[in-house]
Amino acid sequence: MRIEQVPTPAYVIDEAKLVNNLEILKSVQDRTGCKVLLAQKAFSMYTTYPLISQYLSGTTASGLYEARLGREEFGGEVHVFAPAFKDADLEEILEIADHIVFNSERQLRKHMDKCRAAGVSIGLRINPECSTQDEQALYDPCATGSRFGVRIDQFSEDLLDLVDGLHFHTLCEQNSDDLKTTLDAVEAKFGSYLHKVKWLNMGGGHHVTREDYNLDLLISSIQHMQEKYGLEVYIEPGEAIALNAGYLVTEVLDIVENGIETLVLDASATCHMPDVLEMPYRPPLRHGFEAGEKEFTYRLSSNTCLTGDIIGDYSFEKPVEIGDKLYFEDMAIYSFVKNNTFNGIGLPSLVLMDQTGDCRIIKSFGYEDFKGRLS
Ligand SMILES: *Cc1c(COP(=O)(O)O)cnc(C)c1O
Q1: CA of 236 relative to ligand 1 center, distance in Å
Q2: Ranges for the Orn/DAP/Arg decarboxylase 2 C-terminal domain (predicted)?
Q3: Are 9 and 298 in contact (CB under 8 A)?
Q4: Among 197, 238, 204, which Cα is nearest to 218's?
Q5: Tell me, what's the pLDDT at 139?
Q6: Is 216 exposed, middle or buried (0-12, 13-18, 19+ CB in 10 A)?
Q7: Domains, the chain
């Protein structure tokens, strides 16, 4: 079926756009010999893993479940980082992971013997204390008091006998100039230690597939770390893998006129695009413009009970009618992975659009998915 025929609400993943991103990411691997991993917390539509695994080296996980998913559906290397590991989870993770990265010296010392015995490569997350994001602290692991990573004043050389590699993750939707700034800080603080480890994982937040991304600076930064310190380098982007590669398709159910004309949609910010409220941000909308820019302005909202469940105000060239479909763009990442069934609202189906534009429903959800998480 064509995208216009897909039952709503639905996330439609655009395979052509995905492949385009994957080709760019693979070129980074090919030009440097580094390894690129899919950070599953941003995008884990595992139907696409066989495709993605043709381009990338493996997956990274935030804990046991994502690690299992990566092992079962993707293959390749499985890396895991968590602020702390529960003993029972770690037992299972040891059977499937290639790398485990610890967040603190205490966690490292607690679990390292089991990792060694299982043949898992051990890493420690460092905090280079270099904030390159000027927005809010929500996405800045280098913010004051952040729980992430060992700072240089807590680091001692004998830790190097316990680990194979170091990991940092400080970026969010950033270009390679910020990576360069961060690497300068990593080298200034941890440079003498880098000679003594095998690998360096530079985390995610690299917006590699964005149009204005400076790929050459990423490549030269990776090569610099490889050559100067003899390191094996990993990056683990999430967003960049499926950036602009999916849509949330929704239908206008009603139009309420209470001083403002509000479109009531069968998709919700709080249930289906929570980053709109959390981050917050305004999702791009096909044929939608800034409020007031075109003749017909509406407030886009949902069929939940939450007054603030508002996606934003958009204007259109033509009046919108009940039954019209709207297409939110850039909805593959940090969207369905965060879904919930608040208000008993149904989960949108997951749809794959192949390179010819043909859409196939991969999974649809119903009442049992709502009830199954309650008791
Ligand atoms: C979130 C996260 C990533 C992926 O970040 P993106 O911003 O989606 O690229 C990678 N590594 C770690 C440790 C993370 O927490």
Answers
A1: 7
A2: 11-331
A3: no
A4: 204
A5: 84
A6: exposed
A7: 3-11+246-331+339-371 (2.40.37.10), 33-242 (3.20.20.10)
% the chain with pLDDT above 90? 97
Contacts of residue 239, Cβ cutoff 8 Å, sequence gap at least 6: 42, 173, 204, 205, 207, 333, 334
Radius of gyration of the CA atoms of the chain, in A: 22
For the chain, percent helix, then strand, then coil, each to nearest 5? 35, 25, 40
CA distance 293 to 89: 52
Answer whether 334 contacts ligand 1 (Cβ < 6 A): no
- Mind listing the pLDDT tens digit for each residue in 52-91? 999 999 999 999 999 999 999 999 999 999 999 999 999 9
Q: Is the CB of 205 under 6 A from ligand 1?
A: yes
- Which residues of 118-245 form beta strands (DSSP E)? 121-125, 165-167, 199-201, 232-235
**Relative orientation angle of helices 215-229 and 176-194, to the nearest 10 degrees:** 0
In this structure, is the dihedral angle defined by the CA atoms of residues 330, 334, 335 and 337, taken in order, positive or negative?
positive
> How large is the average pLDDT for residues 98-117?
98
318 Cα–ligand 1 center, Å: 40
pLDDT of residue 137: 73
- 119 token code pair: 């043949």
Query: Is 81 close to ligand 1, i.e. is its CB under 6 Å away?
Result: yes
Is the entire prediction scored with pTM above 0.85?
A: yes
d(CA 191, CA 185): 9
